[in-house]
Amino acid sequence: MLFDIDIRKTLQAGSRSFALNLQLQSSSQRIVIYGPSGAGKSLTLKAVAGLLRPEHGHIRLNGRTLFDQRAGVNLAPQARQVGYLFQDYALFPHLDVRQNIAFGLSRGWLNPRTGVRHDAVEYWLRAFGLETMAHQLPDELSGGQRQRVALARAIVARPRALLLDEPFAALDLSLRHTMRRELSDLQQHLQIPIVLITHDPQDVEIFGDHVFQLRDGRLDAQETAACHLPASEALACGNTTICR
Amino acid sequence: MESVWMALALSLKVAGLAAAATTILGVAVGFLLARASFPGRNVLDTLLTLPMVLPPTVLGYYLLVLLGRRSALGTWLLEEFGINLIFTWQGAVIAASVVAFPLVFKPARAAFESVDGQLEQAARVLGTSNTAVFFRVTLPLAWRGILAGVLLSFARALGEFGATLMVAGSIPGKTQTLSIAVYEAVQAGQDDVANTLVYIISAVCVAVLLTAGHLAPGRIARR
């Protein structure tokens, strides 16, 4: 099982409370968590990355336990080795493109100076057509370029999985199309498992080998493209499983 | 004229050390209050801001009571280490630090609170230790706001009069800083000395304020 997630978490904000109660399992390399905003998609992604601690349950990635409440396991975000693409990219505004991409590669207490080269960083600068702007600050880039920088920064250290939070929402329509194709090709090239959360049906179309539909913090339905889920697992979830 | 330069040198030494001390303490406490949430946080904030509004003579009195020979701390310092802070330039540094502390601490807290927490999360997911996140992301993004406060605290320490006079006195060449020397010169009717001192201290303060204004937060530093 590539992804095995079972999390429960209650959040309180003033008089309102929100309960996330989600069980999902998948062996697909491309899974999409789909649902309206406020359904708990981002919370789920944050829990996988270690930025939010669930109250109960477990999170396993390709057999590796990242969190297990009963066993008392809760790996720090630093130890989870996942790549995270934030919705508005969260590029470091004080560092240039090359420093941003190389950020996770250096372990010191200070940022390496501008112009320090790593082979892997140079490779991704070339692959994403960013060489000419390697010394520019994120503020000076276009939306598509920013996303490429964020993507390069997330994959340069070869994470075990890539988590994508509404990766195309901040882009205009034509660019969205291009970046979807780029990401899809990249995933196939690297064979890296991805979890993508979105409210855009077009993302589901392209990345949804296994789609989990979320509503009010709960699993509403799931469907697989090739129906490679064993029937027993689908039944165990107690939800509708639809084959395309 | 020689006494003027001695007073200037002493003032710069006291203000420089006080600014350094308030920077380290102000950044640490500002970060703590910006990030940690614990009961009494706002009470602590108010207490730490008090030196900004209390008359310096009152602060000086508190310090005398706290550090003087009759206090427990003062006795302990004297008996254990042979340290007496009253009527010394080190005492002047402490007085100036207490007065200038809120000028670093307040903007430091605000600057840390304005740093986007998502950037810190992004750094942690990339494998950066929490300490390194502070030095590689949080501090570089907050330092402009902090630096403006540091310069203001330096200017404030340079102009410190009341608390310094109470704690360190006015010993020429030893604890007589510029601002105290101005007072002594006017009292003694030495108008030419007073004029020189006033011009020097005004010029230094204008320079500091110009620099602080140039470093005002809002623009993002290249590094």
TrEMBL record, chain A:
Question: Gene3D superfamilies in the record, alphabetically?
Answer: P-loop containing nucleotide triphosphate hydrolases
MF terms from GO for this chain are: ATP binding
What keywords is this UniProt entry annotated with? Answer: ATP-binding, Cell membrane, Membrane, Nucleotide-binding, Transport
Q: Which residues form the ABC transporter domain?
A: 2-241
What Pfam families does the entry give?
Answer: ABC_tran
Under the heading InterPro entries, the entry gives: AAA+_ATPase, ABC_SmlMolc_Importer, ABC_transporter-like_ATP-bd, ABC_transporter-like_CS, P-loop_NTPase
Question: Which PANTHER family does the UniProt record give?
Answer: SPERMIDINE/PUTRESCINE IMPORT ATP-BINDING PROTEIN POTA, SPERMIDINE_PUTRESCINE IMPORT ATP-BINDING PROTEIN POTA
Q: What is this protein called?
A: ABC transporter ATP-binding protein
Q: Which gene encodes it?
A: modC
